[in-house]
């Protein structure tokens, strides 16, 4: 039975977040199913496209994607992922472990086999990772696997530290918004079309097909910094 954790994250002063919930499937994948080439194949079957594998460094800037839903699957390692709020300083240490962030949001402990599905607009920041240097491990620039045989290229990647594979609904392009870029236009972010299938669960009602119910009313914004 699939375990699903669902989190509703309200908009903040800087971040749209989404009326759709953030979904977390703890330990969904293991063994052969956790290999990048196998995940890539499953994603493609469900209408999602693999864009990247990143090995994460100690921390990063909080950011969101204004026009694309995102699926992140943890391949190796452990980390903390903060969702729902923006950084309020460029000092990464202060925004990670100090007061340089908006109030609110949630932090989730992530480990190999976990899957996260982020509706467009959801802020996220990965930090306190298994020690390693930040690097893009897939060929290309992180917006698609630029290889003659993507599946083969994925199977040959050496994974170490905290690594995730990222995918987006077919035809989606992602941006890197840090906060306030869409001020006054949150509804446009929320209007990003709902995918027809869950990236890994397909038509199963346990996934986004059943949990992302069409929304009408805009969520209430929180404004504390």
TrEMBL record:
Superkingdom assignment: Eukaryota
InterPro entries: RmlC-like_jellyroll (IPR014710), RmlC_Cupin_sf (IPR011051), YjiB-like (IPR047121)
Protein name per Swiss-Prot or TrEMBL: Uncharacterized protein
Organism: Zasmidium cellare ATCC 36951
């Amino acid at each position: 039975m699939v375990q699903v954790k669902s989190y509703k994250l309200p908009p903040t002063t800087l971040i749209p977040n989404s009326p759709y919930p953030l979904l977390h499937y703890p330990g969904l994948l293991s063994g052969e199913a956790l290999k990048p080439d196998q995940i890539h194949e499953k994603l493609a079957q469900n209408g999602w496209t693999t864009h990247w594998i990143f090995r994460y460094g100690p921390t990063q800037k909080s950011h969101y994607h204004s026009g694309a839903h995102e699926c992140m699957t943890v391949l190796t390692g452990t980390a903390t992922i903060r969702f729902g709020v923006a950084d309020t300083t460029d000092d990464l240490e202060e925004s990670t472990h100090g007061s340089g962030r908006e109030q609110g949001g949630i932090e989730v402990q992530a480990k190999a086999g976990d899957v996260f599905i982020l509706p467009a607009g959801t802020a996220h920041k990965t930090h306190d990772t298994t020690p390693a240097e930040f690097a893009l491990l897939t060929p290309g620039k992180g917006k698609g696997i630029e290889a003659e045989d993507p599946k083969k290229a994925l199977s040959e990647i050496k994974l170490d530290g905290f690594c995730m594979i990222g995918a987006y609904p077919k035809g989606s392009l992602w941006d890197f918004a840090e906060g306030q870029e869409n001020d006054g236009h949150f509804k446009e972010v929320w209007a990003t079309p709902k995918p027809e299938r869950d990236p890994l669960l397909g038509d199963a009602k346990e996934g986004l097909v059943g949990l992302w119910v069409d929304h009408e009313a805009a969520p209430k914004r929180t404004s504390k910094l």
